[in-house]
Structures are given as structure tokens and as C-alpha cells.
Amino acid sequence: MTAYSSDRIHNIVLLGHGSSGKTTLSEAMLFTAGAIKRMGSVSEGNTTSDFDEEEISRQISIKLSVLPLEWNDRKINLLDTPGYADFIGETREGIRVADAGIVVLDSVSGVEVGTELVWAASDERNLPRFVVINKMDRDNANFGRVLEEAKDIFGAGIVPLTLPIGSAEDFKGIVDVVTMKAYMGADGTEEEIPDDLKDEAEAARVQLVEMAVEQDEELMMKYLEGEEITPEELHKAIRKAVADKVLIPALATAADSRIGVKELLQAITEYAPTAAEHVEKAEVDGEEVELRAEPDGPLAVFAFKTMADPYVGKLTYMRVYSGVLKSDSRVYNPRTDSEERIGQLFMVRGKEQTPVDEIGPGDIGAVAKLSTTLTGDTLCDKGHKIVLEGIKFPKPIYSVAVYPKGKSDSAKLGTALTRLVEEDPTLEWHQNSNTKETILSGMGDMHLLVAVKYLQEKFGVNVTTKEPKVPYLETITKVARAQYRHKKQTGGAGQFAEVHLRVEPLPRGGGFEYVNEVFGGAISSAFIPSIEKGIKQVMAQGVIAGFPVVDVKAAVYDGKEHPVDSKDIAFQIAGREAFKKAVLEAGPVLLEPIMNVRIVVPENFMGDVLGDLNTKRARVQGMEQEKGKSVITAQVPLAEMLHYATELRSLTQGRGVYTMELSHYEIVPAHIAEQVIEKLKREQEEQE
């Protein structure tokens, strides 16, 4: 592929709800542009974009794909993103490095849940965008209805750039309201506009022209005075209006039959911003600067995606924002304060990798085997440190406990999970010291199902998953005393220790205090640490339900020792058993994690969500309106939130989102604590 200057490069992200036809549209664009020789299909599992085995088997996009093509002596880097909400991290990666977005709508379904999510994510980046109403060859396709729905939800700036000629099986072509010509079939044969569409096309053109010229006072006066706007003036005005986000052109397509695709490619090259027009904000020595895609500018490269490639190892996708990145060079990573060696650079199209000597400003490519660079990192020259803004990934909201199937799996699990998280930053994993479980968290059940599949297929680690245990804690509610004598006599030296201790509750978060109140030498000072060691063993293992004991003060106030038989292990055992007895007498209770939960839902679902929260022992803290949505803040026990990602989607038709973080621990109500302890006892008996 030819090297292009930044003023001839368009980085375009395809966005939309699942099954709106993004992958098929990208395939049609590649074929129409001559980038591929045969147009694949999702059902046959042979598209350029969805080459991963999981994508082929599930027939959905899971990963972001980079799909460069050439049109009108320009390069378009298409970024095909998943539509399923669980894989929103991939979508955010694409939005981060795009100059404009194409939001794809189904001509029958219209604006769906995923559409709203990606629109909001595009707003965060202030991304110029187009709307494509796709699948115009479907039964019940309705361009006008979907267009009006999009305007109602997203604003009146959405204006038709093309209109469909017919629909369903009778979808023949499109009308371009700029040129006022009809273009028929996949080849776009030019014809006159059908008589029954002339009035609609004229009205659409007036609307488009008026919105475009509003951005130029001189052009506006010319238009109002009845002078003709030249094609060049209109073209320039539309480009500016799109770049300023006041105009969102809408186009009709049928990706399967490629009708309208040629005109979409034409619209991108004529009206979408180029990489040269993009101004990227960066931090240099703590000060904000603006970078432009200039070859002689300082090197600024953004790593926006990391993949585990079975052939080349770790593959890092990058956009060059300034300067030129060359193969076989050295760059600097400010986050790690280390140098990286850049080996062979690639241009990537799906799974196809084409070696190149350099990647110029504004362009997208990849490199293999970077040692420390992760998604969101900046690469620059060591003498000119630059940091670009990272990617805002949502926090995981759904978790499973992961258990290795065999010893070899256990040995590889930690490394594999770390690599999995490097590839997908919306995943997190950790070892829960309370429950002794390995916890993998993500955006939903589908997300984690796919992640577990990748553990097996990419990293050779076989695991089973279970619902994670709630990390309860144990504590006491009153002061209690206990004593224990450990006496063991064998043929040789025996063991002897006697410990008298008192336990007292500490304030929540008080941790553990250990006090020596022994006077008169009843217990030698050498054995006091041994008693503490025994107590800490019990605190780690739990007394009533196997969970760690917290917020306790233990005071040793008396005891006995033997001049010969007393030793470290004897006082460990005596301290351990005395502590157990004291805790059981001190009103032991379970503590449960209470989460701060923030839920954002459309207002019409507010009642259902609040009603459901009332069944979850929730304490609603507040309700407010934010950007047309209802926001509920509440404190809810974690035990009630284990399946909330799935439940909220069901309650709100997928339109609700939430975040959750630990607030504090509280005592579990007695009747629920009994159920928890009983359940744990049954599980232990089954394991035995």
C-alpha cells in the first residue's frame, strides 16, 4: 500500500448496536475499494474483520479490527468495533484513535441500546460522525422513520446526504442530495432522480445547504440574497460543518448488495476530517501542548490495542500522532521510564500483516514483541518526553472465581491472566485473601465466557468457573476472657503452656492490637510473641465460618510455664486455642462488604430499578437527573449484587449501567448470617 501524507488519511471508526451490520459494511467497503478480491460473510465465518475463532463460532465481533483501504487517492483506516456491550473496551480503543465515527443503524430496528452507548462514548471524545442507515434491503426497512428516531434522540443535526430509492427487495439505489443525481446498484450507475423522489430530494438538499452555510457568514449572506452556491463552496461548507459537529450526514446503504457503499466511501473522502486536521493534546514536562500530524514534529505514538498473536507473540497497534516511526529504531516509554526497541513495523488488515519501513504521522500500524508497552502508553523520543491522554475504560462489574483444572494449569494461571488483562484492560484479576479464590472480573457474563475460552485456546490453561464467594469477615461485639492449658507428654521432653487472655472489640477498621499485661513473670517475655503468632493463625483462618477475624484487641494477662517443657510451639497452640474460646464467648458476628453503587437508567425504568433495590437490602442515598437520565446512588451489600449486571440489563432492556466500589463493612443480620454459615458447613461436608 502506498504511503500517504496525513492530509490524505481518514481514520474512521464503525460504531453501532450488535447486528446492525458493521462487519458486513466494512467487508463491502473493502471489496468496493478493491482491497479484497472476494466479499466474505459473517454467516460463513470468512470476513476480513472477524478472523478470531470465537468471533467465527459466535458470529459476532469481539475484537477491534483495523481495515485500511484506498479510495479517491486517499487512505481510509476503518476501525471495525464490536456492538455487544460486554466488549465496550474494544469500542473505546477505536474511538480513541479515530478522526470521525460512522454510527450504523439497522433500517428496521433503528436506535438500539448499543447505539446510545457508543454515541455517548463518541461525545466524550467530541468525535465528528456520520449516520448510516443500513440493511435497506430488509423487509419493513424504513429510512424516514429511523432517521426521525435518530433526530429525536441525538439531535436535529442529523441530515440526509443520500436518500434510498425503494426498499426491501425493491431497493435499487440512492439519491445524492448534493449532486442531485441518482446512483443505481452496487456500481453506482448515474441516472436522473425518479419523479416520485424529486420533491423529497429537493427538500433534503435545502435543509443540508442551510445547515452547512450557517457556519460561514459570508456564504450565508450569499445564500439569503438568492445567489447560487457553487459545488466547491458547498463541499467546503459541509466539510466544516461536519468537523464542527453541527452537521451529521445520514446515508442509506445495503451492505449485502453493496448499494450505497460506493457513495459512502465518496462521502468519507469528501466530508470526513483528515488526520492532518486533528489536533491532539499532549503533556510535555507537565505542560499541555498541541500536536499536529507533521512528519518533522516530535515523535508521539499512541499504543491503543494489544493482542496476543499466535505467530508473532504480543502485537501492539499504534497511531502515530506526530513525527515518523521507523522500523529497527529505539523509542522511549515515559510510563515505564524505559526504552523499547521497535523491530519490524506492519500495516495490518484483519489478520494480514504487511511489513513497512515506517509509519507516517496520522497513520495506523503495528509492531510485535514490545517488552513493557501496554494499551494506553505513549512512545516518544527519549530527549523529548511526551505523554498522550490514555483511554478511559469502564470498571469491571461482573466476576467469577477461576479454578485451575490441574497442576500444570495452576502453575500457568497467574501469567496467563496477566497477559489476558494486558490484551483487554476491561478485565481485572486478583487473589482474594479472604476467600482464597482467584477472581476474574469483566463487563458481563459473555465477556468472561470469552475470556475463559482465550485462557484455554491462547495460553493453554484449562479452568472451571464458579460464582465467587462473598469476602465476609469475622469480628466480636463484646469483651470476653478465656484460658487454655496445652499439655503433651511423650517419651522424651513434653510440651506445656497455659495462656489466659481477654479479647475486646475495636472500632470498624481498627485491625488488630496485641497487648502483654502479664506481670510477675508468669510467662517469660520470650513466649509472648509465640502467643501472638498462634492468635494470628486463628485470625487468618476464622473461628465461626472460616473468614478472617478483624477489629479485635487481644490482651494476655496471665498464664503458666514449665522450666523444661515450655517452648515456642506449646505457647503458639495455647494462644491459638485460648483465642478461639474467647472469640466464641465474645458475641462473634459476620461482617459483609457494603458497596457504593451508582446506577444510571432512563427515567421510565426508575420505578422498576428502585423496586428491585428494595429487595436487595439497599439503602438509597439519592436520586437526581443527569443528561436526561435518572441517577440512583445507593449502598448495597455485595452479596446482593453478584448477578446485578445481568439483572439490570433485564430490568432496563439493556439501557441501564452502573458502577460499584467498596464503601465499608457492616454486621450481617443474624438470620442471613445463619444461612451463610449453614451453607459453608454443607460445602465443607461435601468436599470431605
Write structural notes for this entry:
This protein has 5 domains: 6-195 and 246-277, Rossmann fold; 280-388, Translation factors (Elongation Factor Tu (Ef-tu), domain 3, Beta Barrel); 398-466, Alpha-Beta Plaits, CATH 3.30.70.870; 474-587, Ribosomal Protein S5, domain 2 (2-Layer Sandwich), CATH 3.30.230; 591-671, Alpha-Beta Plaits (2-Layer Sandwich), CATH 3.30.70.240. Helix 6 crosses helix 8, helix 10 crosses helix 11 and helix 12 packs across helix 13. The radius of gyration is 32 Å and the shape is elongated. The longest helix has 18 residues, at 568-585. A 7-stranded mixed sheet has the order 2-3-1-4-5-11-6, with helices on both faces. Strands 20-19-22-15-14-23 form a 6-stranded antiparallel sheet. Helix content is 29%, strand content 32%. With 688 residues, the chain is α+β, with helices and mostly antiparallel strands.
- Fourth-tier CATH superfamily name of the largest domain: P-loop containing nucleotide triphosphate hydrolases
Number of domains: 5
Q: Note the gap between the termini.
A: 65 Å
* Low-confidence blocks of residues: none
In spatial order, strands of the major sheet run: 2-3-1-4-5-11-6
**Architecture of the largest domain, CATH level 2?**
3-Layer(aba) Sandwich
Largest sheet geometry: 7 strands, mixed
Question: What proportion strand?
Answer: 25-35%
- Helix-strand category: alpha+beta
Overall pLDDT confidence: 94
